[in-house]
UniProtKB/TrEMBL annotation:
Keywords: Purine biosynthesis, Transferase. (6R)-10-formyltetrahydrofolate binds at residues 75, 100-103, 117. Pathway: Purine metabolism; IMP biosynthesis via de novo pathway; N(2)-formyl-N(1)-(5-phospho-D-ribosyl)glycinamide from N(1)-(5-phospho-D-ribosyl)glycinamide (10-formyl THF route): step 1/1. The record marks 155 as: Raises pKa of active site His. Pfam families: Formyl_trans_N. This is Phosphoribosylglycinamide formyltransferase.
Length: 210
């Protein structure tokens, strides 16, 4: 993918909760606007109303939309509605920033290779909902976070970048997860900027950035 040099990459960010990753992107874009971060957030979508992530977007003057699963007769209809609502903003990249729903075939058909997610473990180890807990229970000494493209599997898409976090003897799940989140926010911001500015291509499981 290559974004025309004449404009920043258009980002749509999907959230379900507090939106701390969204805020990290907003803060970086605001600070680096003059020097050229290379991307702008054109909309924020959510799967429910009343989230802090939506409020962060509104405070920044960014359009928002909500697609709730329960407002549709089937999961496929919800997926189609989410696809249409997202596509209306013509994004170059779609960012899952704590979006807690699994998208379907129509969404991936439209945004495959452009839909980015973060995971709080070093994939392919410890995929799924409880990556932090599973790593801690397994007894690993190092864990971390992964930024990857989303495919049809659960945390199985091509890996873009990873950040390493040491596991301390005194860690519980909450303490470890908070340290992972700090690295995750920095890594996501760095990755999105690089992809937006430099473009990329996907060859098999490899993501190549010039």
């Amino acid at each position: 993918m290559a974004v025309p040099a004449s404009r920043p990459a258009r980002l749509v960010v999907l959230v379900s909760g507090a939106g701390t990753n969204l805020q990290a992107l907003l803060d970086t874009i605001a600070v680096q606007h003059v020097v050229g971060y290379g991307a702008e957030i054109v909309a924020v979508g959510a799967d429910r109303h009343g989230t802090e992530g939506l409020e962060r977007a509104k405070r920044s003057g960014i359009p928002t939309y909500v697609c709730r699963v329960e407002d549709h007769a089937s999961r496929a209809e919800w997926d189609a509605a989410l696809t249409a609502a997202t596509a209306a903003y013509e994004p170059d990249l779609v960012i899952s920033a704590g979006f807690m729903k699994i998208v379907g075939k129509e969404f991936l058909g439209r945004f495959g290779g452009r839909f980015i997610n973060t995971h709080p473990a070093l994939l392919p180890s410890f995929p799924g909902t409880h990556g932090v807990r599973d790593a801690l229970e397994y007894g690993v000494k190092m864990t971390g976070c992964t930024v990857h493209f989303v495919d049809e599997g659960v945390d199985t898409g091509p890996i873009i970048a990873q950040g390493v976090v040491e596991v301390r003897d005194e860690d519980d799940e909450t303490a470890l997860h908070e340290r992972i989140k700090e690295v995750e926010r920095r890594l996501l911001v760095e990755v999105v900027g690089r992809l937006a500015r430099d473009g990329y291509r996907i060859e098999g499981r490899k993501v190549l950035i010039p």
